Amino acid sequence: MRSPTELTTWKKLADHQQEMNSIEMKSLFEADPKRAEKYTTHAAGWTLDYAKNRANEKTLSLLTDLVKEAGLEDTIKGMFSGAHINNTEDRSVLHIALRASQAQESLMVDGVNVLEEVRATLKQMEKFVAQLHSGEWKGHTGKTITDVVSIGIGGSYLGPKVVAEALTPYKKDDIKVHFVANIDGSDITGKLKQLNPETTVFVISSKTFGTLETLSNANAARDWFLSHGGSEASVSKHFAAVSSNVKKAVAFGMAKENIFPMWDWVGGRYSLWSAIGLPVAIAVGMDNFYELLDGAHQMDEHFRTAPFEENLPVIMGALGVWYINFHNAQTHALIPYDHYLRAMPAHIQQLDMESNGKANLLNGDGVETDTGPIIWGGAGTNGQHAYHQLLHQGTRLVPVDFIAPLASHNPIGEHHTQLFANCLSQSQALMVGKTLEQAEQELRDAGATTDQVAKIAPHKVIKGNRPSNTLLTDKMTPATVGALIALYEHRTFVQGTIWGINSFDQWGVELGKVLGTDIFNRLVSDSDNSALDASTQALIKAFKKAQA
Ligand SMILES: O=P(O)(O)OC[C@H]1O[C@](O)(CO)[C@@H](O)[C@@H]1O
After folding, report:
1. Where, by residue number, is the active site (predicted)?
2. Residues 385, 414, 459, 545: which is the catalytic one?
3. Of the residues 11, 38, 77, 513, which is catalytic?
C-alpha cells in the first residue's frame, strides 16, 4: 500500500502550494468575474459554492488528479458492489444499500440480495410505527403509547437523535421520542422522571447488544418498569430492540417480532438509515423516513456517477485534504445556520473522527501524513458571539462549511433574512478581511485621535483569505437532510481513500473499554493497585475515599 506522499500528484500539490501562498482569494475573484459560477455545483437538492477557497483552476485540476491517482474510482466501485473494503474486519460497507432498496431491485453480496433484507426490515418498521401511532399497540394496562425512549450510544444514538431534531417540523404530536445514551445515571434518571411506565416503550439500539452504557441503561429502564407496576411477562409490550444479536435481546425479554435486524455490513456511525433509525421513523412517520432515505440515495447516485469535477463529496473531500496536508489545518468547522440542524456538527464529528482518526495505511504501515482533522462547530449565529473571533483573527487556519436553507420553517418577522445575512457576512468577512489602511480610516471616520488610531488600528486588522464552502438548499426537508448527511459520509470516504486508510473500523476505542472494565473492578474491590501508574492509583483512592 502506498503512502499518500508517494503519489506523483502529492508532490505537485506541495509545489503548487508555494505558488498559491502569494495569491489572495480576493484577487482570484477580481481576475475572474465568472469564478462564483464556475465554482458552484449542485446535487440532490443542495448547491455547493466553493469559490471562497484558496484554489484556482490548477489547484482543482491537481486535486482531481490526486483523487484519481489515489484510486477513488475503484474504491467507489468497491463500496457500491459490496466488496470487503473494511479490510481489517473483512466486511462490506453498505450503508448505501440501506437507501437503495426503493430504487433498485437487487444488490448481491456474498450470494445474498441484501436489498431484500433491507426491504423486509423496512416493512417490519412500518408495521411497528403504524401500530404505535394508530393506538393499536397497547401497554400492559391497556393504555396507548405516548412516549418512546431510544437507548443506545455512539452510532446507535447520535445520528438518529440529530436527524430527529433536524426534522422537528415534521414530528408527529401523539408520541414523544426521547434519547438516552450516557452511563451517567443523571441521563436516564432525568428522562424516567417525565414518563409513565404504562404508556412508554423503550427501543434498545445496540448492534452488538454488548455495549456497557446501553445495557446498563436498558437494565435501569427494565428495573424502573418492573418496580412501577410492570411484570416480567409484560416486558415484551414495553421493550423492543434493534440488534444483530437476537439471542441476547430475547434473553432480555424482547419478543422476537420486536427485534429489528442489523447487519455486519453497516458500521455504527453509518447506521441511522437502518432500523437504528427507528426512533426517527416513530418521531416523523414512515413516509418521512422513506424521504430521508431517498434524499440520501440521490446523493449516493450523484457520488457514484458524477464526474469528479462536479462531484460534491469529491470536491469537499479533496479541498479538505488540501488544507489539512498542504496548509497544516488541524481542524474543520461546520456551522449550520438552521436552528434544527444545530447538533449536526456533533454527528459529523463522530462520523468523521471515528472513521478517519487513523494512523495506519490499509496494509498496517504507519501513515506519514496527517489524517482526519478535528471536526467541530455549532449553530450560527450563536457561534459568532463566541468562537468566530478565533476564526477571523486567531493564528490557526480553520476551513469552514456554512450550511443554510433559503427558506425557514418559522418565517417570523425579518428573522430568516437576518440569519441568512449573517451566514453570508461571515464567509465574506473570512475571505476579504480588513486591511490596516481600512482599520485606520474607520477609526479616523469615528473621530479617533492620531494616537488612538495608531494604538487601536493593528488590533482591528483581519487578515482574511480564510477559506469556506457554502452549502445551500431550498428548505430543510427529510430528503435534503438525508442528502446532506450522505454528502458528509462520502466526503469522509473520499479523504480516507486519498490517505489510504480504512475509514470503516474503529480499533482505537477498544483499549479504553478494556481498561474501563479493569478500573471498574478495582473501584469495587480491594485489589492491589501498586502496579498501576501513580496518577491512576491516586485517582482510584480519591473515588474510594468519597464512597466510604
Ligand atoms: O451499537 P453498539 O454495538 O451498542 O455500539 C455502539 C457504538 O460503539 C462503537 O463500537 C464504539 O465504541 C461504535 O462504533 C458504535 O456505534
Report:
1. 354, 385, 513
2. 385
3. 513
Annotation says 16 is catalytic: no
Give Dmax (Cα) for the chain: 83
For ligand 1, atom 9, which residue shows the shortest CA distance? 154
DSSP state of 367: P
HEC profile of 178-222: EEECCCCHHHHHHHHCCCCHHHEEEEEECCCCCCHHHHHHHHHHH
Q: Supply the residue whose CA is at minimum distance from atom 2 of ligand 1.
A: 206
List the residue whose alpha carbon is closest to atom 10 of ligand 1. Answer: 268
Structure confidence by residue, pLDDT tens digits, 497-545? 999 999 999 999 999 989 999 999 999 999 999 999 999 999 999 999 9
Look at residue 275 and give its three-state secondary structure.
helix
Question: For residue 105, what are the contacts with CB-CB under 8 A and spacing of at least 6?
Answer: 115
In angstroms, what is the span from residue 126 Cα to ligand 1's centroid? 25
Task: Report the nearest atom of ligand 1 relative to the CA of 205.
Answer: 1
Kindly report the three-state secondary structure assignment for every residue of 30-72.
Answer: HHCCCHHHHCEEEECCEEEECCCCCCCHHHHHHHHHHHHHCCH
Q: Which atom of ligand 1 is nearest to the CA of 267?
A: 14
Distance between CA 311 and CA 500 in Å, rounded?
Answer: 20
Q: Please name which of 193, 233, 242, 246 lies closest in space to residue 214, comparing C-alpha atoms.
A: 242
Give the residue from 240, 263, 237, 239 showing the smallest Cα distance to 120: 263
Cβ neighbors of 70 (< 8 A, separation 6 or more) are 4, 7, 497, 498, 500
* Residue 372 DSSP symbol: S
**Which atom of ligand 1 is least distant from the CA of 152?**
4
Q: What torsion, rounded to 10 degrees, do the Cα atoms 351, 96, 5, 468 define?
A: -60
Measured in Å, residue 211 CA sits from the centre of ligand 1 at 7
Residue to mutate (ligand 1; options 211, 219, 510; most atoms within 8 A of CB):
211
Mean residue pLDDT across the chain = 97
Whose grid coordinates read 455490513?
265
Mean pLDDT to the nearest integer, 321-325: 98
Q: Are 29 and 35 in contact (CB under 8 A)?
A: yes
Is residue 238 within 8 Å of 229, Cβ to Cβ?
no
> CB under 6 Å to ligand 1: residues?
153-156, 206-208, 211, 214, 268-269, 506, 509
Nearest Cα residue to 402 out of 423, 377, 376, 378: 423
Q: Is 513 a catalytic residue?
A: yes
**Residue 434 alpha carbon to ligand 1 centre in Å:** 46
pLDDT tens-digit readout, 51-106: 999 999 999 999 999 999 999 999 999 999 999 999 999 999 999 999 999 999 99
Kindly report the three-state secondary structure assignment for every residue of 283-340: HHCHHHHHHHHHHHHHHHHHHHHCCHHHCHHHHHHHHHHHHHHHCCCCEEEEEECCHH
Which of 180, 182, 208, 246 to mutate to test ligand 1, by most ligand atoms within 8 A of the CB atom? Answer: 208
Q: Residue with the nearest Cα to atom 7 of ligand 1?
A: 154
Q: ipTM of this complex > 0.90?
A: yes
459 in catalytic set? no
